[in-house]
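fyi for ur records
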Amino acid sequence: ATQAAVAVVTSNVALGADKSELLAQHKSTQTAVAAANAALRTDIATARSDLLAEHNATRAAVADAKGFSAGVNADIATTKSDLLAQHIVTQAAVAAANAELSSDLATTKSVLLAKHDTTQAAVVAGHIALGESLTTANSVLLAQH
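which gave:
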């Protein structure tokens, strides 16, 4: 009976250590997700800020171009066309950057969710093993009793 009780205690201690390790992994995964999300948000905010500054500079350049005299209308039209083309390229770059960042975020989220699911499965398996161990020990103790 004493050996069975020692076996149950030893099993419980081992499972407790496994549970602690799995919880630590889970917390580490959550921290990694939060850090990845923060980094992606920072990258998106920086890209948007840079592109907005570029857009505003483009608008200012267009406004300056409109101030020229009627004699340089052809130059203004050319400048406006060039700036519009740059604006379109900039918009395409923003769209591509957003798509890439969204894809990276989705990939990161998927990987971290998979790790989370694996951790949860290991915790459940540990709980099941503990239950089985306790049931076996209980049966042994009852038989010895």
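Helices lie at 2-66, 73-144. thats all i got for now
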